[in-house]
Amino acid sequence: MKTEIYGGLYDEHRLIWRFFPENEEQHRDFLYRKNDDSKTMQFFLLSERKPENDLDAFLIETKPFAPVIRKGAVYQFQLRANPVVTRMPEGKESKKRRRDDVYLDALAKNQALPAAEQITSQEVLTHSGSEWLIGRSEALGFSVNHVLVERYRRLQTRKKDTKMTFGIMDFSGVLTVTDEEPFRRSLLKGIGHGKAFGCGLLLLRRAI
């Protein structure tokens, strides 16, 4: 599988941080996602603080976000996520953890099957991505009515001298709120890993 070399990912991370003045005790308190459908550089951003614009090249539009969460509410959703499974290669007693890409892990297992039992890579992507999201949905406060895995990309970027490679999946579908507080946390804190690089923000629209 081809890995896309994308140095701009870390540049985007640094760009978003510029709108939020840092101090030694400040942790990241925002989620963001780049809008790939826009012809210009555009980001969706959810933050605890109001962004400060010191770049004339950007127009920032803000509004309060105080969602009223109700059990049973149905939403159309979009999610960009970094689906991984965390393993303990040296046993439960060890503190060492390893994060494996969900899709690549499933792809390797599929390729190890007899040829007659293998499924297509697109089917592997659909099954592995859907299982990852559905398997976590109860703890996140919702059930998945329908989900589509729209795209998978494997990106490589650099932070100073450190090379980082990870997979990103784009999901869309319909969900139902099953537990209000966990769902609120999912909205405000994001879903999965990779939040510093544009993953985890759950975009919602009321289902008609």
In words, what does this structure look like?
With 208 residues, the protein is α+β, with helices and mostly antiparallel strands. It has helices spanning 8-18, 102-111, 121-140, 180-189, and strands at residues 4-5, 30-34, 43-47, 74-81, 84-87, 98-101, 142-159, 162-177, 202-206. The strands form 3 sheets. It has a 5-stranded mixed sheet with strand order 1-7-8-4-9. It has a two-stranded antiparallel ribbon with strand order 2-3. Strands 5-6 form a two-stranded antiparallel ribbon. Helix 2 (102-111) packs across helix 3 (121-140). The longest helix is centred in the middle third of the chain and has 20 residues, at 121-140. The radius of gyration is 18 Å and the shape is globular. Residues 1-6 have low confidence and may be disordered.
Write a compact overview of the structure shown:
The protein has 208 residues and is of the alpha+beta class. It contains 4 helices and 9 strands.
